[in-house]
Specification:
This protein is an alpha+beta fold. It has one domain. Helix content is 20%, strand content 39%. The strands form four sheets. The chain has an eight-stranded mixed β-sheet with strand order 13-9-8-5-11-2-3-16, covered by helices on one side. Strands 1, 4, 12, 14 and 15 form a five-stranded mixed β-sheet that branches. 19% of the residues are buried.
Length: 235
């Protein structure tokens, strides 16, 4: 009987290890703090009077009801959208605690064989911004932190494998530079990224049809536990 229990526990351990969640990268989109400037409201009121502008602002108002949801992002051959809480989750595909964030309106797949993508490139440097988020350790305070800074776009326009691409115009996204406290953990919880009210989610969504065949959706379901994430298989 004792040996049966040992065997049972051994098999249970193997099963648990096999379904153990992959490490993930996650972050949240948050609404950019709104301005109460009366001059901005006056300018918008004048624009609404222009033919066709009313329909544009009506559609934009509909998407604002869930401002941080439905924003497309790519990473490691995957494509996903932020959920109703503004959260984006990817399975972590690189080992270094450093992530490059590329904010751009369009990217170009460089094809190697048939539909096999060798790498991705930035399509238009003029509407692109790039940031580096790296986890560092301060020996004096014995604390980990994220160091976020804007970096130059590479001359060859190649998007590195550790890059998360946010499909949007840079003017609609705000990524604060500086330090954010964190902990040492294989699950990378990046600092918040802020979305401005005039983001054009409908236009960005239509663009995705041009590249969706080269990317895989993230079909895994991640369940948040007390200290980690567990993975469930979607039927």
């Amino acid at each position: 009987m004792k040996y049966n229990k040992i065997i049972f526990l051994y098999l249970l351990t193997i099963i648990t290890l096999n379904i153990k969640c992959n490490d993930i990268i996650t972050f949240f989109f948050k609404p950019f703090p709104a301005s109460n400037d009366a001059s901005i409201a006056a300018k918008r009121a004048e624009k609404i009077k222009i033919p066709g502008k009313m329909q544009k602002y009506t559609l934009r108002a509909i998407t604002k009801s869930h401002l941080t949801a439905g924003i497309f992002c790519t990473y490691g051959g995957y494509i996903t959208t932020s959920d109703l809480n503004g959260q984006v989750i990817f399975p972590r595909k690189h080992s270094e605690p450093k992530v490059t964030i590329v904010v751009t309106r369009s990217i170009t797949p460089i094809i190697m064989l048939e539909n096999t993508v060798h790498h991705w490139e930035i399509a238009n440097r003029d509407v692109t911004k790039m940031y580096e988020i790296e986890r560092k350790y301060d020996a004096a305070t014995r604390a980990y932190f994220w160091d976020t800074k804007e970096v130059k776009i590479p001359t060859d326009n190649i998007i590195s494998e550790d890059s998360i691409v946010i499909i949007a115009y840079p003017k609609h996204i705000y990524i604060p530079s500086g330090i954010t406290p964190t902990i040492k953990d294989p699950q990378l919880l990046l600092p918040n990224i802020y979305i401005k009210n005039n983001i054009e989610k409908l236009t960005n969504s239509l663009y995705i049809f041009n590249i969706k065949n080269f990317l895989a959706p993230t079909n895994n379901i991640f369940k948040k536990e007390k200290m980690s994430y567990s993975q469930q298989i979607k039927e």
